Amino acid sequence: MMEAEYQIGDFVDLQRNFAGALRPGPFEIIQLLPNCNGEQHYRVRGPDDAHHVIGRCEIEEVAIVRFRRRHAEKS
Questions:
Q1: Beta bridge partners of 65
Q2: Which of 13, 10, 24 is nearest to 61 (CA)?
Q3: CB atoms within 10 A of CB 58
Q4: Do 43 and 31 contact (CB within 8 A), yes or no?
Q5: Are 11 and 2 in contact (CB under 8 A)?
Q6: Which residues have CB under 8 Å from 24's CB, separation 6+?
C-alpha cells in the first residue's frame, strides 16, 4: 500500500469547485481515508469548521508548496 502524500495536521488549499467558485482555506487534513480508484481521499476541516471529503486531485499544488515552506521556516 502506498503512503498518503499528506498527513493529519497538514494544511492545504483546494482548487475551485465544479461550479468555478473559490473554496477559501486553508483546510486542515483531519483524517486519511481509503484510496478509491487509485486516488487518496482525505477528510478536511475548513476555516468555518465544516468537514469535507476530498480527493487528492482537489488539492491546489501551488498552495501546498507555500504551506510546507512556511512550516519548514518555523523549524
A1: none
A2: 13
A3: 20
A4: yes
A5: no
A6: 47
SS3 sequence of the chain = CCCCCCCCCCEECECCCCCCCCCCCCEEEEEEEEEECCEEEEEEECCCCCEEEEEHHHECHHHHHHHHHHHHHHC
Amino acid (1-letter code) at residue 59: I
Question: What length does the chain have?
Answer: 75
Give the integer Cα–Cα distance in Å for 41 and 3: 12
Pick 4 or 67 by higher pLDDT.
4
Residue range 2-52, pLDDT digits in tens: 677 888 999 998 888 778 778 888 899 999 998 888 899 999 999 999 999
